[in-house]
Amino acid sequence: MLKVLSIIKPSAKVLVIVLCLGFCIFSLIKNADPYFDTSKLPKLQIGDLVLRKGTVLDSSIITHLSKSNYSHIGIISALSPQIMVTHATTDDELTHKDAVVTTPLKVFLAKAFAKKIAILRLNFIDDEKAQLIVDKVKQKLGYPYYITGDKNSPKKMYCTTLLDDAIKEVTPEFSLQYQHVNQPIFKGDYLFVEAFFQIKDKTLLYQR
Length: 208
Known about the structure:
Layout: H1 2-6, H2 10-31, E1 49-53, H3 57-66, E2 72-78, E3 84-89, E4 99-104, H4 105-108, E5 116-122, H5 127-138, H6 159-170, E6 179-182, E7 187-190, H7 194-197, E8 202-207
Antiparallel strand pairs: 1-2, 1-5, 2-3, 3-4, 5-8, 6-7
């Protein structure tokens, strides 16, 4: 390469270098996979819970207030033809913002959305109950995202309450602790993702 450059005019050298650098950058971008490699995960089941710490400011505020590593949660709702997660979100789906949506797991855990990851399995939920819970979650697809400090509000629909309500319908004895917050942005009682992570009867399948 150096011998070739030595016989090229200075102006042409610059062009050659720019073209080479451009090709290298293009190759890196082309070969870079923005999605999470789900082959790294253990075998998942319908009803497994997927937690993540998001990459936006809201996520940092939530993890700070809840003293948690995680700010968002969804549930495995399909295994084939690819693994899917159903969740209430504000920004994962550009065409369905602020709604309950279903997202490929590889996108849900992509670097653009996830800084930290954990996957849980609730040991007290058998396969039949897990499917019932997922069915109830799917009934909420398209519902508008709505976060409120009023834990008794019938309008509340955010990531944790979506799952909490569905699990309670199938397993009435299920109970999670809301956290009271009194901050300028957040005031009231909120159900944070940490409440799911603190469930005792669970298996931590994966953490990163």
